[in-house]
Amino acid sequence: VQLQASGGGSVQSGGALSLSCAASGSIFFINGMGWYRQRPGKQRELVAYSTRDDGDSTNYADSVKGRFTISRDNAKNTVFLQMNSLKPEDTAVYYCNAYIKAGASDRYYVRHWGQGTQVTVSS
User: Fold this and answer.
1) What pLDDT digit, counting tens, does each position of 2-13 carry?
2) Which residue from 60, 58, 61 is spatially nearest to 72, judged by alpha carbons?
3) Burial call 10-23: b when 16+ CB within 10 Å, e when fewer
4) Residue 99 in 3-state DSSP?
5) Residues 40 and 32 sit within 8 Å (Cβ to Cβ)
6) Is 56 left (phi over 0), alpha (psi -120 to 50) or beta?
7) What is the pLDDT of residues 37-50, one digit of tens each?
8) Could you count the other beta carbons within 10 Å of the beta carbon of residue 42?
9) 91: number of CA atoms within 13 Å, CB side?
């Protein structure tokens, strides 16, 4: 299984960017799928996440609520992150993440990470 992230780049404060991440390979079911980020000198932190067990649900870091929107195209095993009203403190490497079962008989989900993509917001 591979997670391929795309998008990101550089933008001025107040601007918008979008990220996408597509999972490929042996995939039976993807439960959780979302985004983390690692800001300079900080630990990796959750940005936004979407899960499918017990109904679809999403959660966001308080710092991005109202500005970022996560969405999924389950048919394409892809997760998106629309980032609006970007701030300099959103500057980070963004990583996609997914919990995937490769086969119907798999008992557990395996956590996968995509490569990071840089988002830079200038003031």
Assistant:
1) 999 999 999 999
2) 58
3) ebeeeeebebbbbb
4) strand
5) no
6) beta
7) 999 999 999 999 99
8) 9
9) 12
